[in-house]
């Protein structure tokens, strides 16, 4: 079925094929009629969001009817949606297919040095797909009402469950699983066969949950969204799990998990700070198996360009995750001395929008490590700051927490390999480490984000 002609509430889950966005140098040789530049190519649309990846391109093509009405010719002074609809998860379910086995140019666009899929680009694609799914769910099929602004509010967790090969076809399937008054949770699963030519069914290689919020495009205030009606037992279970996660987020926002630093907490801080003080006061006597947190820092910066904007004119959330991942990977690589292997992204909040022209700074550090001989863990923090030199201001837009280990084959080749212990030099750093450890432990004990 052609999704360009399908209504937004169609139950069809036809996979959207992803194709390479570059012409092969060995195909479509220029001819005399091709004009002065010698190449005949379909013009690239000037719509925002078309410059991110082949997936973004495919999604815009698939949803062009909705996007064209919403963003190219929005109705003037149109009223808001008057009646909320009941929609099922099936009505928003969307599948995209990467034809890696047959499209060698697409493979090269996604290949990393280890013949696997570049995780940073995949994070970008996940956000783009989640955005498309949220538009599907919130559409009321009425060209006389004004559209909603839908923005990424947070990412619950992204977990890599197995390596993702770049030589085997890949699918991402996503759907709305939970709806609040003005928020939507979308679950995405990346699936791939265990090996090329295998008859086994696809297995989940990565899972992610995105939370989007709706704003009235005229007033900017929170706007209600269409309701969700789970049908199958699995859909009902996913709804209940998402409801529990939402309740936990409310508790955390309300400070319900904050505790005073009593004697036990003070002791934890003192333990963390003890070695750090030796580094600062008597560096020659410091433990050679430890390193100060501040000595693991890396940083990069950029000016946000128009090509990185989303359909609302703000910087694409997937682009921010992509850049944060690349810096986190580099930080883990420089720290471990071996090629890191990505495991997961912890909960991410998008605290403030990032605009075209903003001066964006990414600052990373190794926050703490877990020395496990079988699978050592490196926990990286990346903080994105929107800096405005003319106003002498700097605000945090995002904080990302990535977990890496090292590739077993690389570790096996390096005799005596070990992960250093990271120690804080200040009480503020120590408190931050303790808070992160407690947050991780809380999610694990309550069974969230697994």
What count of structural domains?
A: 2
Annotation, overall tally of beta strands: 16
Structural class per helix/strand content? alpha+beta
> What Rg do the Cα atoms give?
24 Å
- Report how far the terminal alpha carbons are from each other: 35 Å
Query: Strand percentage, roughly?
Result: 25-35%
Assign the CATH class of the largest domain: Alpha Beta
Shape: globular
On the 0 to 100 scale, the average pLDDT is 80
CATH architecture of the largest domain: Roll
CATH superfamily of the largest domain: Hotdog Thioesterase
- Low-confidence stretches at least 5 residues in length (pLDDT < 50)? 1-10, 24-51, 256-261, 445-450
The portion of residues assigned to helices is: 25-40%
Multimeric status of the protein: single chain
Question: What's the order of the H and E elements?
Answer: EHHEHEHHEEEEEHHEEHEEEEEHEH
How would a crystallographer describe the biggest sheet? 12 strands, mixed
- Count helical runs: 10
State the CATH topology of the largest domain: Thiol Ester Dehydrase, Chain A
Biased composition (Low complexity): 1-13
Region (Disordered): 1-39
Keywords: Hydrolase, Repeat, Transit peptide
GO molecular function: fatty acyl-CoA hydrolase activity
Question: Can you offer a commentary on this structure?
Answer:
With 450 residues, the chain is of the alpha+beta class. The protein folds into two domains: 16-20 and 47-252, Thiol Ester Dehydrase, Chain A (Roll), CATH 3.10.129.10; 262-446, Hotdog Thioesterase (Thiol Ester Dehydrase, Chain A), CATH 3.10.129.10. Helices cover 30% and strands 26% of the residues. Strands 1, 3, 4, 5, 6, 7, 10, 11, 12, 13, 14 and 15 form a twelve-stranded mixed sheet that branches. It is globular, with a radius of gyration of 24 Å.
